[in-house]
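assembly run, all chains below
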Amino acid sequence: MNIYALVKRTFDTEEKISISNGAIAEDGAEFIINPYDEYAVEEAIQLRDEHGGEVTVLSIGNEDSEKQLRTALAMGADKAVLINIEDDIDDIDEYTSAKVIADYLKDKKADLILAGNVAIDGGSGQVGPRVAELLGINYVTTITKLTVDGTNVTVVRDVEGDSETIETSLPLLVTAQQGLNEPRYPSLPGIMKAKKKPLEEVEFDDLDLEEDDVEAKTETKEVFLPPAKSAGRVLEGEPADQAAELVKLLHSEAKVI
Amino acid sequence: MSKKMLVLGEVRDGELRNVSFETIAAAKKISGGGEVVAVLIGEQVQSLGEEMIHYGADRVVTVEHPHLKHYTPDGFGQAFMAVYEDESPEGIVFGHTAMGKDLSPKVASKLGAGLISDVTKIEGEGDDAEFVRPIYSGKAFEKVEIKEGLLFISIRPNNIEPLAHDASRSGDVASKSVEITNLRSIIKDVVRKSTEGVDLSEAKVIVAGGRGVKGPEGFEPLKELANLLGGAVGASRGACDADYCDYSLQIGQTGKVVTPDLYIAAGISGAIQHVAGMSNSKVIVAINKDPEANIFKIADYGIVGDLFEILPIMIEEVKKIKVN
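ok done. output:
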């Protein structure tokens, strides 16, 4: 199977977010593979081990994303592609990213494309389905189980807590939900091997696109932090009195029950 | 300039989900006086059209077909696009639900359009409308606008107030026949896991447990309180990782991001990745044995104590209020 996994470099989930000069401050922050994309990479590797073939991890961004691609290679992916459009395209939204990724993938004959169901930074979850639509292939989002038999695919999808069993076929794009698998940590030999695995860098000029084709449709006007929440009231007294007091406050003061 | 808007209502178990009415309210605000047309898609949805009118839609178009019994992106995509082509709206509003998240990028891509997902607030009206959405799971927010062309947004449930129900409103409920073909996904089975049908993303009250619940059976008092309050049960990553509950309950930066009116965190320490998923709840209650737990820093009300002691008393007290 010819498998692609889409990977995004994101802030570590443990990072606090601050703003400087109207943008999210990146100084000193730790970056990781978007956690949902890790499930995608792990599933890709397991499928290759079971069915044979090749796993290519693909990211769009600048050279900083090489680190996350190397991590995916260390987990067991075979090849990596970095589409570096930093020098050519100023504003990127989901429309832009999907156009660029789909253009790169259009002649790659991918059987299966895996991605995270959402990135923990932007959080829109658009790029996966958009890429599938641009490539004219089917997609299933937020999957928790994937079984491939020839070209037949059975998927279990998380739908707001319910699970749907879906039958479909390759070629297919799926987006990973938590629970799909347990992503492995890269092993030391894996890290050593990853250094020698191919990481291809593609520039905007290498694609069949003009800058006008990918111009962002949306524009961020402002980024801001939520108002700081001040600590509230800690109740006192016997447990029974506290619990009764709490229910009373929620009923008559906060008016939420 | 007024805009003609198309909204997609959502049906679950034969009833309209609340977010359907919220899409109408959002569309009205953006429309600047333009017409708001609601679309309902399913096997049998015609009878629900009137309710959309009562909540402020000017007209309703329904698409019914046996192949639309379950949501699939192909089936619902074909149905929605057929109505879109008839109506040529200048804006679209979906709910940012499992269905809306799945379908909206497909429709946006087909239309070559931008899409602002997961909007929690609309500032200004008509042409001046700006859209606020959480980023980094609510650790920050951004204000976004569409540069040109179709104005397409999806709204997070439970954030935009529906218009008042007005049973005296009337409007046309038309049905459109669409050929639904070539479905590439076939739904074989649906297993319901949600508690009492209250969905986490739409719940007004959430009672969430962490490692402090100590085991799967430790969730029982949480479930009882949640059911009593008409709410849903959630969990921290700690509780999910320890196999106390299903991952579908997880709230946090990985997991669901929720904004209920009342969030009760029981036995949850308040790790930054959990807080990101719930800190925008309107009222937060923390119950934890550890007085130093982080969760107290963001709680409106806190009790330092054992959840197994506190929750049963709360349950009895809530029952008393319900009786009165």
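Chain B touches chain A through 95 residues (CB under 8 Å).

Chain B has nine helices and 18 strands.

not gonna interpret more than that til we talk
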